[in-house]
Amino acid sequence: MRGFKVAVAWTAAAAILAVCSAVPAAAADSAKMNFYGYVMMDAGYNNQPIDPAWFDVQRPSKLAASQADLDELGKDGSVFMGVRQTRFGVKSTLPTDMGELRTTFEFELFGTGVDAGQTTFRLRHAYGEMGKWGAGQTWSPFMDIDVFPNTLEYWGPNGMAFFRNVQLRYMPIQGDTRMTIALERPGASGDQGVSSEFADLSGIRARFPLPDLSAEYRVGKKWGYFEVAGMLRQIEWDDMTAGPTQTQDLSDAVTGWGVNLSSNLKLGPANVVRLQFLHGEGVENYMNDAPVDVGTKNDPSDLVQPVKGVALPVTGIVAFLDHTWNEKYSSSIGYSRLDIDNSDGQAADAFKVGQYMLANVLYTPVPNFMCGIEGGWIQRENKGDATTDGFKIEDTHIQVSFKYSFAFSTGGQQ
């Protein structure tokens, strides 16, 4: 592990020096800016109560975790309406002696985190690249945005790797066939479950001594492409209550890793099949809808460390078909699933399996305007315990959307 840390440190230092020493020699009259975005309105109906902060998306993990939670959320379904998918972005390009300098700044109105459920500004991309180097917030190389189907529902397939992260990246191969290596901002979450019965976990503090290391390699062909991506990360935590007078020290660490295989297959001019298979341990925060990266396992016979951390195994699949009926009508249909191998220290209501299906019909009567209708189904299944299967709940929804797009450019050589 020490060798891995040294290698990451030298890679980061070399990348920073290479980027910072670059002095663009650009002609101002060659700069070009592209403004783009859309105004989008969604309306729909969920037949099952869902976490009110996530009322307009289909996330299996946000369904009720127990009958008690379901009773608290209310009965039957409800209507939702909103404009939170509305988006605005600016891209710029500028020729330099080291290659084209490109930047992207993009935001939307879909609040998450402390703003979950609100219509508020949310940063999507703040990223720049020049030549073979890039830095900022954008898609993680561990994910493949081209797997995302043409849906109305905002959140998308739950079994898909989906994460915009702050990163420093190197792209030695660019084009239809490409390779990317990145150091990404680390972060993870844990589930203490029922392990507090065996030890005092109040002093546990997460620590990330290294950036996450990710990489992708894509082979582009006329029939589509095939991509393989990988992730390696270190997750550590310290027991702040441990000391000379304490008999227990719960400080520990796990190594997270993942492999993501993805593809787009062009089946004639009217069909695109979007596929992904992912497996790993402790990479849940890179997934589109997974709760925690680390669980616990209990070992009461170990007096010093009766509770240990476990990087939770996760598997995600995506299989969707985007079909174009004609110049005005198109559809998307498919299935996604996410499975977590729960640890024995997690409670019976811990998230275990999420499933996601939908189908739609989209209508584009004129350029820059689209409307459509979509139906979907999601299901949540919990871990359960030794005597009973996990709690299950499902939701079906219907949604209609209206999208008005715009784009215009300025600058550049005429």
Please, could you describe this protein's structure?
The protein contains two helices and 20 strands. It has one domain: Porin, CATH 2.40.160. By secondary structure, the chain is mainly beta. It has a 16-stranded antiparallel beta barrel with strand order 1-3-4-5-6-7-8-10-11-12-13-16-17-18-19-20. Strands 14-15 form a two-stranded antiparallel ribbon. About 4% of the residues have low confidence.
Alpha-carbon distance between the two ends: 54 Å
CATH superfamily: Porin
Number of domains: 1
User: Any low-confidence stretches, pLDDT <50, length ≥5?
Assistant: 11-26
Q: What is the overall silhouette?
A: globular
Short description:
This protein is mainly beta and about 425 residues long.
Features:
414 residues, Porin, two-stranded antiparallel sheet
SSE topology sketch:
Layout: H1 2-20, E1 32-46, H2 67-73, E2 78-82, E3 87-94, E4 101-110, E5 119-130, E6 133-139, E7 164-173, E8 178-184, E9 204-207, E10 212-221, E11 224-239, E12 252-266, E13 271-281, E14 294-298, E15 307-311, E16 313-324, E17 329-340, E18 351-366, E19 369-382, E20 392-411
